[in-house]
Amino acid sequence: MSRIQLLPENVASQVAAGEVIERPASVVKELVENSIDAGSKKIEVMIRRGGISSIRVVDDGCGMDRDDALLCLERHATSKIRTGHDLAAISTLGFRGEALPSIASVSRFSMATREHGAIAGTEIMVNGGKIEYVRDGGEAPGTQIEARSLFYNLPARRKFLRTENTESSHVEHQMHLQAIGHPKIGFVLVNDDRLIYQLPAVTNLIDRVRDLSGPALAAELLEVRGINTGGITITGLIGKPGVSRSSRAQQIVFINGRAVENSTVNYALREGYHTALMKGQYPVTFIFIEMDPAAVDVNVHPAKREVRFRDPAILREALVESVRRTIETGREEWTAAFSKGPVEIGRREAAITQTTPPLIPETAQVTLRRDWSALPLQPPSGLTQPASPAQSSIPLPVEQSEPAPDTKKPRNDHFKVLGVLGKLYVLMENESGLVLVDQHAAHERILFEELRRRMEGQGVPGQRLLMPLTIQVAPRDGDWLAQNLDTLHKMGIGIEPFGAGTFKIDALPQFMQTGEPMQLVREIIDELRQTSVSTSKMRLGEDVIASTACRHAVKANDYLREPELVKLIQDLMACELPYCCPHGRPTMIQISYLELEKKFGRKA
Ligand code: ADP
Ligand code: MG
To answer: pTM to 2 decimals?
Structure first.
């Protein structure tokens, strides 16, 4: 007898189910996606005991007639593609015709469906892949599917389920994705008879975010400055600079309506934020990418979570650009408000003519007139303005205008410096309340931009070494170095080839004072090499600059005198990205009167 046999259909389905249906959240995903593909306006999901005991999805979509209702339970039965050709350009969420048979093979499955306008609907009951009955029914138009006792016939699978709470949170996350991805559809989620939410259909993404996650998150978002290049359109909302999370849970990206995880996308988002994102933190994004379905392959992952791009570089470029532009919007609003202050124009000019100051400001050669008290500044909403460090003994009245958080209209507030807390945080008062500025972070940002400006322009001035040094490198490093001498020169490092595998160094950047120049150069080369893998030449070296800026910036505990404080704030205000340090940490924080009133119980 032959050793090889074809598996019976129900076993084959269970094998397939192993790929598609991992846990209750996967059932929810497949059923909800089917409802979306069916053109539903409203989708209700009810789960019990984390979905393990029951998952019920009710929609008002197109429904199915009796034949289709039976056919959809067969493997590879789909209404969404017809030929192999169609696989090359998929515009629906489903296409494999595998989900329903998979779910039905690992649960007690029932379906009731009715087309709009049909006289009767169809009810089908399936147990572990075997049809128990098919009959006419009188349900409302649309489709209701229930999957009970998930994996009851696959104990091995069932053992891998986590606690009900964990499974519930996976379901909630999945629903979150779908709800964000489809604001025009109303969603209801009920968990163990508890209404988790009831989201009305809305026309704008921001309304959906607000309904789902509350006004606080909505206020931290910027509308993506949509970009439209190479057949790619990018829209959505992203967190303002300084807004980040410690996990990717809020980094949500849809490609043609499908939530995806993809390293090209992740990388591009990080690159777009660049210094506005803290190391180890993830951005908050609700990004929608629309592109030619033929340019993206969604048929690479059983649960269709991952995608591949025909041309990742174009997408990456488009994403980086839209994030960058969007972040700059915040800055534009900020600047617009800033330059509105009546006293401000003279003040800003003063600040500008003083740019290109010594990189590491020697204390006290700041010559500012005493009218700095009218310095108008504006922090972006949710963020604060920088102040400078000093001791509490220096009360300075500095004023700034501040843009109202959450409003597009800038207000002309004035800041007043109240003093310095813990030798680090400058306390300021503005119209909305209290502003705290981290003097160190503020100074880092100023130095960073200054160094970068010089690097992009003439280059950072180098300081000749009395005795040139020679450095020996491995052949691979040697090739790389030879090709990147320009970048190093711009950084103020005088370096030339000096025979096989050897380089001569005769100058080092002024701002890098070190007793170990060789060590320093090696470190820089290593760091540059790492960043160069996929970054543009301009970006090369920015990390090095950032860490250098950090080492030289005014530290906590450094005492700054009043004029220095004022100068620090002015310089910060003149920065491109004033609200965060080059590592993405905020430079300033606003605590509004409203928050204070709540804390003091004056307001509920
Ligand atoms: P796929 O979504 O890949 O086509 P499924 O097994 O998920 O495969 O569904 C099979 C078919 O059943 C779908 O192509 C669709 O025609 C039909 N179907 C499934 N769910 C629904 C629904 N909620 N409303 C209407 N039709 C549905
Ligand atoms: Mg499907």
So the answer is: 0.69
